[in-house]
Specification:
Shape: globular
Helix content: 40-55%
Strand content: 15-25%
Distance between the termini: 13 Å
Structural class: alpha/beta
Number of strands: 8
Number of helices: 10
Number of domains: 1
Order of helices and strands: HEHEHEEHEHHEHEHEHH
Length: about 240
């Protein structure tokens, strides 16, 4: 993924949520993504279980050579055929279960599977609506107008040794993460910044890259539109940015 970012200026990740994407549509989704220039898949959701996720990974890999990276909502979404796993610490919240509790439970399984982990500071950002992610983790999001709080949170995550930061407005968000928040964090940390949620146009994607996003993650916009031409436009908006 870092090579894709360095090559294009920013990487583009397609989020596949089994709660929203029927299994029979996966071959089409995978082939369109590869043709459009998508750099990787994030795979996961709030309610999906391991047996189902295992099939999704296998199907995506049959139809594309793009890396499939786990974006787990629960330990049941840790499966051995993933290429890597986002090891998510919800640093925007104060729920100890999502700061360390579930990580302890998952660690032996992850080690047994020999999965590559990417330690990720997950930062939920207020988006104008209660998102599934906010509800499931039981924590308030970062206020979208309080850039200083977000910057301090990001700096703390970097100081804790996290490999990347993921700013997420949540699936189906009314508003994406503010550009000012992205740029403020970009100025304060050296680790890659992932931004997701609420980006429905190429212009919104380009704005996040210009603000300093290393990777943008889009999912719902493709569920709503679905055509390959639109996907190409979104990917191109990310790949036309300046390397960060």
């Amino acid at each position: 993924m870092l090579a894709a970012r360095d090559r294009h200026g920013a990487g583009f990740v397609l989020l596949v949520d089994p709660d929203d994407t029927p299994e029979e549509r996966l071959p089409e989704v995978a082939e369109r993504a590869a043709a459009a220039g998508v750099d990787a898949f994030f795979l996961g959701g709030s309610l999906v279980h391991s047996t189902e996720l295992d099939r999704y990974v296998a199907t995506l890999k049959r139809h594309t050579e793009l890396p499939v990276i786990g974006f787990p909502g629960a330990i049941t979404q840790v499966v051995g055929n993933l290429d890597a796993l986002l090891y998510l610490m919800v640093i925007s919240g104060r729920n100890p279960d999502y700061l360390i509790g579930r990580h302890v439970v998952a660690a032996p399984l992850i080690r047994k599977m020999r999965l590559e982990t990417i330690s990720t500071g997950y930062m939920l950002v207020e988006s104008g609506a209660l998102t599934t992610a906010q509800y499931m983790v039981g924590s308030l999001p970062l206020p979208r107008e309080r850039t200083g709080v977000a910057v301090a949170t990001a700096m703390a995550g970097e100081m804790l040794g996290l490999q990347t930061l993921y700013l997420d407005a949540g699936s189906g968000a009314d508003h994406p993460v503010p550009d000012a928040m992205v740029s403020g964090i970009r100025d304060a940390v050296q680790v890659p910044i992932i931004v997701g949620g609420g980006m429905r146009t190429p212009e919104a994607v380009a704005a996040k890259v210009a603000a300093g996003a290393s990777f943008v993650v889009v999912g719902n916009a493709f569920e709503e539109r679905g055509d390959e031409a639109f996907m190409r436009e979104m990917v191109s908006a990310a790949h036309s940015g300046v390397s960060v």
